[in-house]
Amino acid sequence: MAMLDIIDLNGSQSPEAEELRFIRLLQAKQTTAKLHFFIQDALGGSSPTVWEVARSSITPDSTTSFGQVRVLDDLITAEPDPDSQKMGRAQGMITSSDLDKTALTMNLNLYFTCGKYKGSTLCIVGRNPMDRKNRELAVVGGTGVFRMARGYAISNTYSYDVDTNYGVLEYTVYVAYVDDEDCV
Q1: Cα maximum dimension of the chain
Q2: Which residue stretches of 28-154 are H helix?
């Protein structure tokens, strides 16, 4: 069956065509990238980008904010300065999930809005112990250029202003993904 035979009139692919594309993706050449950027984390101030959406009954008495659930839509920039080149958004959910230490369970989608990764996403999940340097999180997938992505991210707190409740997080992401151009 030819590829043209299984594309419908709207230009979208049939389930059979998508399955064929998936098999080609699994066999495609892998590409790697190292990405370095900063996330502007505004927990307070006039335009916060992190909002609490739930808390447990013990959150107010917990030294680690256990049970607090927050959603975020943070700016990704090329440099620590929030006015540097805008690269995208870090969107997702973070949960305070350790009774004894300040640690977050994170589910982040890095959405890139410029350059060769424009429109693509990376999905990052894992445990983020905030008191450590070089915190490792898993890259478990992606879309667009990063289809079939896997790898890891190293996160560090670059700066944090207690008075304004504003943090700058530094990320270095090591990612492998398939070259989707080979699969068209």
Answers
A1: 64
A2: none
Q: How many CB atoms lie within 10 A of CB 95?
A: 17
Return the beta strands (E) in 3-78 as ranges: 30-42, 50-54, 69-77
Mapped onto helix, strand or coil, the DSSP state of residue 108 is strand
Helices (H), the chain: 15-27
Query: Distance between terminal CA atoms of the chain?
Result: 16
Report the C-alpha gap between 172 and 122 in whole angstroms. 13
Q: CA dist 62 to 50, 51, 96, 106, 177, Å?
A: 20, 19, 10, 19, 40
Task: Express each pLDDT in 42-84 by its tens digit.
Answer: 999 899 999 999 999 999 999 999 999 999 999 999 999 999 9
The three-class DSSP label of residue 182 is helix
CA proximity to 112, closest of 80, 85, 90: 90
Residues 6+ apart with CB under 8 A from 1: 16
Q: Output the pTM of the full model.
A: 0.85
Q: What is the DSSP letter of 101?
A: S
